[in-house]
Amino acid sequence: DTGSADDSARLVTEALGGDRVLHLARRTSFGTAVDEAVRTAGPLTPDDLPYLKRPGGWDPVTRAWVDENYDLPELPHGEPVQWLWLLHDDCAPEPD
User: Fold this and answer.
1) C-alpha–C-alpha distance, residues 22 and 13, integer Å
2) pTM
3) Dihedral through CA 55, CA 61, CA 62, CA 66, nearest 10?
4) In sequence order, which residues have a C-beta less than 8 Å from that of residue 88 and are 6 or more positions away?
5) Residue 84's closest CA among 39, 45, 46?
6) CA of residue 34 relative to chain centroid, distance
7) pLDDT digits (tens, 9 = 90+) for 25-56
8) Which residues contact 58 (CB under 8 A, 6 or more apart)?
9) CA 50 to centroid of chain Cα atoms
10) Euclidean distance between CA atoms 71 and 53, whole angstroms
């Protein structure tokens, strides 16, 4: 949020949590705000992108599910796709 005069900063913070919302100065440009968001977001992990996780399996010895097969090179998998959706205050995306 770059200094909204309405309740949007509060509403977004309540919806997403305070650790996921940046509050920047009112005169911050859109480009600067995007740059700050990208800089503070940090890298994504397999836990953030569950489709990167390798399927676990049943271990009959421990009688438990094993989910430690992250990014094993011998298993085929796709490259992660990351994108950034830039929305300005006048955008109205459809839910679908």
Assistant:
1) 9
2) 0.50
3) -10
4) 30
5) 39
6) 14
7) 888 988 898 899 888 887 776 667 666 555 66
8) 64, 65, 66
9) 12
10) 7
